[in-house]
Design goal:
The protein is an all-alpha fold. Helices cover about 80% and strands about 0% of the residues.
Length: about 190
């Protein structure tokens, strides 16, 4: 009996020490982000969350799209070659920004690449479809030069249209635990 009492105190002592070590929440990151994470898995995604994910994706796409259009136009390439370069660079920079943030979380390159591809492919594809569709359908936009206001205006409006069209796609994906919901897991 005395052994059981001693064992009980010893077991309680270890539990208390473990609990005290774990209860120091000051060393943990801010838990405010966990409510957003639980919203991902519960399917409750607000428009602001979807807009932030879309803006993140749009940043990479815009860098690639603008760079591709500028390079192709400056080199005098044809419309199709310029558009293909812009699309390739949009995917490259879109994936690169996501990959960079996942790698910063200490994830190995292979896993980070798979997460970036899964998180961004649909979003970038929709953005590129809308963005390039607007430019292709805008009268004179494909023939505008870097010195033309039409070049920059059509590009800006096409990127804005891509943002508006892609935000609901990202909302839908995040609500199902896909897209940037997957990336969010690595930001803790």
């Amino acid at each position: 009996m005395q052994h059981d009492t001693h064992h009980g105190r010893h077991g309680r002592h270890d539990h208390d020490a473990d609990h005290a070590a774990h209860s120091d929440h000051a060393s943990h990151a801010d838990h405010a982000g966990h409510s957003a994470h639980s919203a991902h898995s519960a399917g409750k995604v607000d428009w602001a969350m979807a807009a932030r994910a879309t803006l993140h994706c749009l940043t990479g796409c815009a860098i690639g799209e603008i760079l591709g259009m500028v390079i192709g136009t400056a080199l005098g390439w044809g419309n199709m070659a310029t558009m293909v370069l812009a699309i390739i660079l949009a995917f490259f920079f879109g994936y690169t920004l996501t990959l960079r943030s996942i790698l910063k979380a200490g994830v190995d390159f292979g896993t980070a690449l798979r997460v970036a591809l899964a998180a961004d492919t649909l979003s970038i594809a929709v953005m590129e479809l809308i963005d390039n569709g607007v430019i292709a359908l805008w009268p004179g936009a494909m023939d505008a030069t870097l010195a033309d206001t039409l070049f920059w205006g059509a590009l800006a409006i096409s990127l804005a249209a891509a943002f508006v069209a892609t935000t609901p796609v990202n909302k839908w994906m995040i609500g199902r635990g896909k897209g940037h919901a997957v990336v969010h897991q690595y930001h803790h």
